[in-house]
């Protein structure tokens, strides 16, 4: 009976995806539902603000993160003391684990619930998710909260704590390369792999236009929690505002305007403010459970984690990460490039995303339909309607937009 249900669900998926039954037959074992599957039962984020001069420039990270925590808990009516563990991804906040603890208390989650923070650079939010998923898989707890935040208005791009470095770093090429500013690694990728300024600008323009259309059509509404904050204007007056949409999307951008922008990181380079992600402020959270626990509680199942991979790449071209890691995740999931319906490739620079899409042969119509970029892949089987006729999503970073928001904005 169980098997019949599984096959029946595949048939309906194949119909939705417009595929012949035989095309999905090979993935029957992938799609079987098991009690210990890792599922997402709630996922929400704040809007994303432009750092330093945006809507959250006067807001604290813990205030923003607690909004995300509160949002997901309330959306499915979970008692805060029932959470087994919390893990939060962050790159630039030197005291992120304490900020996360503050956010927990601001959300009314009692001290008996433990919290930790994790930094895997741009993949930190996704890593937080994987840490919680690992705890559930190991039966340490059946339900956990994963989140992420970045407040670049306050932290900037990091770069703190480098005063006391081991001088030996300069003698070891890859150690030294790890200090290359991110924008310059974009220039290296563009030069090394021949990604022209025009390709970068076009990728960026398309991304902005998709994001503007997605916003206009309300596609982000279900995932964004409106946030009310105080913000100081240029004259020093404080006012209270409620933010409901992402800041920084430039739907009117044209190739002509983009072509006029000066290189941001290197004379004669091709990476500009227009084809880089902006620096941002924001936070997100997901409530994660085993399928068994979700069913027992009657919680909605938004998606099932099907595979996850991490692969290292040379530091001087860090942005080629998706090209290395996506094949690995696909292999683990028993899927091919063509099996994926939607790729969300959240990269900071158009050079990197455009290179990865080209290298992997991803059909352009499947890339970032809402205009965002991804790396650091995990494969999701979607059990809700993200987009018509899409069921399998490969995304890098986190569940749709979570986390490491500092690089997302430009392309959302
Ligand atoms: C794993 C990884 O990927 S690591 C990477 C992590 N993330 C990063 O490294 C962040 C990269 N981004 C940055 O560092 C910064 O955004 C920079 C340096 C590229 C640009 O910084 P800023 O100059 O502050 O950019 P800002 O967004 O304010 O844009 C400056 C101007 O360029 C122009 N501009 C920027 N984007 C666009 C666009 N899409 N279309 C048209 N004009 C644009 C505008 O005139 C804008 O001024 P305005 O906002 O007053 O209209």
TrEMBL record:
It is an enzyme of class 2 (transferase). It catalyses: 2 acetyl-CoA = acetoacetyl-CoA + CoA; 3-oxohexadecanedioyl-CoA + CoA = tetradecanedioyl-CoA + acetyl-CoA; 3-oxo-(6Z,9Z,12Z,15Z,18Z,21Z)-tetracosahexaenoyl-CoA + CoA = (4Z,7Z,10Z,13Z,16Z,19Z)-docosahexaenoyl-CoA + acetyl-CoA. SUPFAM superfamilies: Thiolase-like. InterPro entries: Thiolase, Thiolase-like, Thiolase-like_sf_Thiolase, Thiolase_C, Thiolase_N. Keywords: Acyltransferase, Fatty acid metabolism, Lipid metabolism, Peroxisome, Transferase. Gene3D superfamilies: 3.40.47.10. Its EC number is 2.3.1.9. This is acetyl-CoA C-acetyltransferase. Residues 300-371 form the Thiolase C-terminal domain. Coiled coil: none annotated. It comes from the Eukaryota. Residues 38-291 form the Thiolase N-terminal domain.
